[in-house]
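User: Hi! I'm working on a homework problem where we have to compare a predicted structure to a textbook description. Could you give me the structure for the chain below?
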Amino acid sequence: MNTIIAKNDTEKQFKSTINSFFKKNKINSLLKQSNFSKEKGVPCGSIFKFIFLLVFTGKNLFRTLESKDTKGSFAKDTVYRFLNSTHFNLRKFLLLLSSSIIKNHLEPLTSKDRVNVLIVDDSFFSRTRSKSVELLANVFDHVDRKYKKGFRMLTLGWSDGNTFLPLAFTLLISKKEKNRICPINPNTDKRSNGYKIKAEAIKKATDVMIDLLKQAASYAIPGTYVLFDSWFTYPKTLIRILELKLHTIAMVKAMPNVFYGYEDKKLNLKSLYATLKKKCGKAKVKASVIVEIGVDSQATPINAKIVFVKNRNKSKSWLALISTDITLSDEEIIRIYGKRWDREVLFKMNKSFLNLAKEFQGRSYNSMIAHTTIVFTRYIMLSMQSRNNEDLRTIGGLFFNCCNELQDILFFESIQIILGLLKNALHEKLSLTKEQINSFMDYFISTLPSFLKERLVFSSCES
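Assistant: Happy to help. Predicted structure tokens:
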């Protein structure tokens, strides 16, 4: 029987894809610019690439290092020393990589009229089974609505509506001392990049968001609007973002103590909605209004537009979007905010497929930052493959395609060996003819699930 694809050809094809991504984007050069330097022996680029490939091989670190292909190349301690290093500037590497791809590969593909956006969101970074992880804390998980051990992964990303790229992130812990389980490692050099990122972990989320936006601006990453959920939507935050020459489009939560200036009155969101005249019938946009924000703070008030939209999940309720660009139409505000969905693909892919927070269980904060950076680099590669090939499949489909190139071949080789033994058994024990055996095998294969049939290629009627 023939295998799906010859193993050597498959590995060459996959390695060619990886090598092309690393060469085209000058990964080794970006690592050097980000203070990656070897302490001894193995170059940092080789270790980075080794960890990068792990998820596609379906093997863990120990099994891969013990395999014939990698045995003797470097030890497990070398990998962990790489992950735990406090000298590497991982934030700079991710910003350099993303900004280079945006400027050199994505911007030329789109018109200047296309709206590019920056998206900020947070997601739960689970370490629920850990006890002694550096800076571990009990943080609130918005999905399960309860406190769990782990971190808040605050992420800044860029999107042109077709492709989403992560730019920067940080793992935040609780501001409350009582929720913190483990302290910072006292041996960390306070001059190092590793210490700076740890110090950032205890900052307020809105302050970190502003810092990330400033860093993105320093790399000249194009973006007109900043999109985020209601967790970050405070008048003071919107004013600070506008000072960075960026507009905001965000969801607004009906907070009783946050007021908006309208017709010489200070109204909270619910009171403001009650004051407005609503559109009748099945209109999606119920009302919109220009208001002043920052009227109850020391900052200079600015104008913003609030659009009230019908909540499709609850027929009698509404949702509110706010935009600091008051020239936009109601429909355009809704359309641009819809680009925020791209960040859900990022979190889903990283957690379900790319082994975020699962591949290593290191105890240092720096190891979690290093591994998350590598996971985001994997996502960037898959995202660019999807864009460059104009592939209609999801990024998840591309991930499985890459995995199949390396690990599925062994699985299907095993199946074909089993089917070959079955053919021999039918011939020897039941004395079936070659034609009867082939007829039986054809019927059996036709009953298999489609994902098996698509990958199995048999030689015609061979016993």
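For your comparison, note the following. Residues 395-429 form the longest helix (35 residues). Confidence is low (pLDDT under 50) at residues 1-6, 405-410, 457-463. Good luck with the assignment!
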